Amino acid sequence: MMWSTFLVTDEEGRSVGPAAAPTVGGGAQGGGGGAAGTGGLAGLMSGRSTFGGNKRRRTGHHAMTEAQEGKIKLAFFVAIVGVILTVLGVGTEFWVELAPPKTFYGNQTCPAMHIGLWKACTKTLWVADIDPDRESCGPAELPGESNCTYFKFFTTGENTVLFHKTTHKSLNVASAMLSLFSVVLMAMGAICISMALSKEIVFFLKPASVCFVLSGVLVLLSVLVFQQALWSLLASDHSVPLHHNFSWSVSCLCCAGAILIVGGLLFLLLALPFSPWQRCHSAAS
């Protein structure tokens, strides 16, 4: 009786082992060969099943549970609130209001100004519309003729004169760049969270945590640098006394910085391989 030997390969093209197939010959021996071939196929199927099972278990080890996914979505919502507040604060020009005394020019009108990172808006208000108990001209929300201009140090590199006072170009540019870097980091963090939720891989939470924490820190630094730029502006000339008030854009950014840092720390806690609350509870007990 003649036997022909051939290699059996798995589904990925790798050789698993030889299997014997009987040629046309004796029935009993052919039956024994068929049994051997069946055993070889059964071993192959069992080995293939084991390989696939190990692969699925490895994937499942890194996959997130439904509870983890719900917590990640909740932390992502917190971070999105910080992102919205940051974009709102960076894109608006209500960072600070500047106004001279309402009787400084001795006219029936007085100017008030609100500035941001990118432009300054001057508004001419009627003195009669201002609260009698208020010493300075304003607030800028009162009706009046408005004129907005973008700062020239972003285009031609020139400083801007506001109420005979000169802006500090380097500080203003630094504040604007910090805010833009924070927005870029927020976008990178959002991409990481989207990949973590779509691919169900917890590892992406760590870079997302770093991105959101750094973006929150940069937002707060941008506010501090802008504050230093304002002090430099006010100290550049004392011929015109000015009252200044930080407006709602700065409030949005301060809240956004704190929320982004909290959101980043939440992602870091969710990325840990253990629950810190359970470990503290077990240590206390």
- In quaternary terms, these chains amount to single chain
Helix content: 55-70%
- Strand order in space, largest sheet: 6-5-4-3-9
Question: Could you give a short account of the major beta sheet?
Answer: 5 strands, antiparallel
Number of strands: 9
Topology of helices and strands:
Elements: E1 3-9, E2 15-22, H1 27-62, H2 66-91, E3 96-99, E4 109-115, E5 119-126, E6 145-150, E7 161-162, E8 165-166, H3 169-199, H4 205-235, E9 243-246, H5 248-271, H6 276-284
Antiparallel strand pairs: 1-2, 3-4, 3-9, 4-5, 5-6, 7-8
Please give a structural write-up:
With 285 residues, the protein is of the alpha+beta class. 55% of the residues lie in helices and 17% in strands. The protein is built from six helices and nine strands. It has a five-stranded antiparallel sheet with strand order 6-5-4-3-9. The radius of gyration is 34 Å and the shape is elongated. Mean pLDDT is 80; it is low at 1-6 and 19-61.
